């Protein structure tokens, strides 16, 4: 049986705190926050015409990405969504054309995640909009524990220049997230309260 490190225990406790804060948000506050976060994200991203931007399909209590997708399409970006190929492997990205319906795809565990149809072209994103359970001001991301985005960012960053933008509610910010050797830091985090820019600290 693998040993559980102190950092992993800390992350589990912090994840519980951040997700409880997220779950406590009322529907009206969630909708307003999604619009505000989308506006802040677009300010940080700047010109995106012709770029491939991977945006996650919101599930559970995650911040709604529909307002962001709408703004990205209006700005001329190509939208992609992540696909889980296999546990322990990097994500694949498929193009999501406007007007194309999403279909359930296999996610980690028993979770089905909305994704473009299997015949949608595979693409390599220029920008990765990353879901998270929690984050801190240094750009450390607290994910859901499967490591998909850390593995994916590591591969992509070795292959090309890519921007990683965390996307969440402001209430998910934590004082500090333990960083392990395999963790990939975010370039920024867009929330309803603004954009956290770690490089400016």
UniProtKB/TrEMBL annotation:
Cofactor: Mg(2+)
GO MF terms held by the record: 5-formyltetrahydrofolate cyclo-ligase activity
Top enzyme class: ligase
Keywords: ATP-binding, Ligase, Magnesium, Metal-binding, Nucleotide-binding
Domain of life the protein comes from: Bacteria
SUPFAM superfamilies recorded: NagB/RpiA/CoA transferase-like
EC numbers on record: 6.3.3.2
One protein family per Pfam: 5-FTHF_cyc-lig
InterPro entries documented for this protein: FTHF_cligase (IPR002698), FTHF_cligase-like_sf (IPR024185), NagB/RpiA_transferase-like (IPR037171)
Catalytic activity entry: (6S)-5-formyl-5,6,7,8-tetrahydrofolate + ATP = (6R)-5,10-methenyltetrahydrofolate + ADP + phosphate
Record-stated family: Belongs to the 5-formyltetrahydrofolate cyclo-ligase family.
Protein name per Swiss-Prot or TrEMBL: 5-formyltetrahydrofolate cyclo-ligase
């Amino acid at each position: 049986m693998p040993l559980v490190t102190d950092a992993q225990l800390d992350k589990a406790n912090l994840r519980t705190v951040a997700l409880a804060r997220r779950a406590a948000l009322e529907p009206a506050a969630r909708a307003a926050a999604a619009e505000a976060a989308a506006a802040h994200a677009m300010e940080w991203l700047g010109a995106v015409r012709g770029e491939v931007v991977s945006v996650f399909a919101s599930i559970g209590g995650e911040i709604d990405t529909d307002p962001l997708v709408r703004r990205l399409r209006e700005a001329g970006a190509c939208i992609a969504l992540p696909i889980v190929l296999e546990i322990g492997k990097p994500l694949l990205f498929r193009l999501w054309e406007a007007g194309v319906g999403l279909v359930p795809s296999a996610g980690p565990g028993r979770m089905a995640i909305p994704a473009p149809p299997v015949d949608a072209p595979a693409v390599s994103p220029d920008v990765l909009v990353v879901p998270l359970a929690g984050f801190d001001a240094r750009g450390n991301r607290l994910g859901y524990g499967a490591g998909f985005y850390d593995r994916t960012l590591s591969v992509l960053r070795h292959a090309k220049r890519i921007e990683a933008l965390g996307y969440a509610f402001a209430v998910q910010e934590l004082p500090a997230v333990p960083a392990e050797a395999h963790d990939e830091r975010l370039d920024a985090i867009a929330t309803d309260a603004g954009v956290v820019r770690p490089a400016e600290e």
